[in-house]
Amino acid sequence: MHIVAIAWLFVTVLMAASETSLTAAMLTLFFYGIAPLGLFWWLVGTPARRARRRRSVAVGELSGEPDQQHAEPDQ
Question: Can you give the pTM of this predicted structure?
């Protein structure tokens, strides 16, 4: 999956290099390269984030620590 991201950035850098102004090059690089790639990695990483969250909740339940989410404030 990393090779796809590298190839996509390579293409967008070449697109940005062919632009006539620096502003157009930066906007091309951001809107065609960095923003879509960030969205792609966020979507691809969703299952791993869910699994990590489930593991952390399961470890908290097994360790016997009190659930901080439902703790009442001290008086």
Answer: 0.64
pLDDT single digits (tens) 8-36: 999 999 999 999 999 999 999 999 999 99
Q: Which two tokens stand for residue 22?
A: 């620096």
Checking 30-37 for CB contacts under 8 A at 24+ apart, the result is 33/8, 33/9, 36/8, 37/5, 37/8, 37/9
Taking the C-alpha atoms of residue 10 and residue 13, their distance in angstroms, rounded to an integer, is 5
Give start and end residues of each alpha helix (H) in 1-74: 2-17, 22-28, 35-44, 46-63
End-to-end CA distance of the chain: 53
Q: Please state the domain extents for the chain.
A: 2-60
Amino acid making up residue 21: S
